[in-house]
Automatic annotation (TrEMBL):
The keyword Repressor does not apply. One of its GO terms (biological process) is DNA-templated transcription. Keywords: DNA-binding, Transcription, Transcription regulation. It comes from Caulobacter sp. (strain K31). This is Transcriptional regulator, LysR family. InterPro entries: LysR-type_TF_proteobact-type (IPR058163), LysR_HTH_N (IPR000847), LysR_subst-bd (IPR005119), WH-like_DNA-bd_sf (IPR036388), WH_DNA-bd_sf (IPR036390).
Length: 297
């Protein structure tokens, strides 16, 4: 017999005032009830119920154990009691890339919180992909191909990897016409994205790698963007990071015929059949809003 069942049996016997009545409630025979109670007393090393021919009465040890058993059984029922199917409450833990998260994901999370007053959010922005399971995260926004096919994925759109420079820099140093020309330019390398000084290009189905000698290495995307905008060199960025700067003429897109294929942008979660209502509600809220972003088309 399960340990919780033993405690429930003791409580039932005391409440019913007899083994037979408790047995009917628990759908157990009198013999089974007697054996179970004797086993519990053996394990406790104390008599829990005083038996006479006319009635059963709990001993002091029996009353003490029954009181603790009631609390334990109540806590057990509470733990198993699922929230209402539509309950959206609790803490939502989300992760995403630093720049995209700051510009586009944070506003969506803030709007979600405004609609759900019983929800809190922990938003972790990092340019290294964090493991959902190890990090106890509910949702991740990822840019790039996925290594784990067991995750539930919703594609939002795609971005491209661009080479850009400021007009002032190009006036001074000239415009590279093919990837090999980059070796004669000041290159700004974002080390969190490309730890090795090598950029890959693709044209007519052929991949070409160009080894570079960066003039500036920086481990922060926003800092690299600032240096590129200041005319300090040529940099490689994701299209959403510079969409406004390209449209305003503050940056120039270089080598468009040699750009690698587009990169998917996706929302993912480890949840499946038993996805918490909070996570499902956020995915249903966030996905359509992020899909409408012009920078993901």
């Amino acid at each position: 017999m399960d340990r919780l069942d033993e405690l429930a049996l003791l409580v039932a016997v005391i409440d019913a005032g007899g083994l037979a009545a408790a047995g009917r409630k628990l759908r157990r025979s009198p013999a089974a009830m007697t054996r179970a109670l004797a086993a519990l007393e053996e394990r406790m090393g104390a008599r829990l119920i005083e038996r006479t021919t006319r009635r059963l009465a709990p001993t002091e040890a029996g009353r003490d154990l029954a009181e603790r058993a009631r609390r334990l059984l109540a806590d057990y029922e509470t733990a198993l009691r699922a929230p209402a199917p539509d309950a959206v409450r609790g803490t939502l833990r989300i992760t995403g890339p630093t720049v995209f998260g700051g510009r586009h994901l944070t506003p969506v999370v803030s709007d979600f919180l405004a609609q759900h007053p019983d929800v809190q959010a922990d938003l972790t922005l990092h340019d290294r992909n964090l493991d959902l399971i190890e990090g106890e995260l509910h949702v991740a926004l990822r840019i790039g191909p996925l290594a784990d096919s067991s995750l539930l994925v919703r594609k939002l759109g795609e971005v491209r990897r661009l080479v850009v420079a400021a007009p002032d820099y190009l006036t001074r140093r000239g415009t590279p016409l093919e990837p090999g020309d980059l070796t004669d330019h000041d290159v700004i390398l974002t080390t969190v994205v490309s730890p090795t000084p090598e950029w890959r290009f693709e044209a007519q189905g052929r991949v070409r790698a160009v080894r570079l000698e960066p003039r500036l290495r920086v481990n922060n995307v926003e800092a690299a963007l600032s240096a590129i905008l200041a005319g300090r060199g040529v940099g490689r960025v994701l299209s959403y990071q510079v969409a406004e700067d390209l449209a305003a003429g503050r940056l120039v897109r270089l080598l468009p015929d040699f750009e690698p294929p587009a990169i998917p942008v996706q929302l993912l979660t480890a949840g499946g059949r038993f996805m918490p209502p909070l996570v499902r509600a956020f995915l249903d809220f966030a996905a359509p809003r992020l899909e409408r972003l012009a920078v993901l088309r």
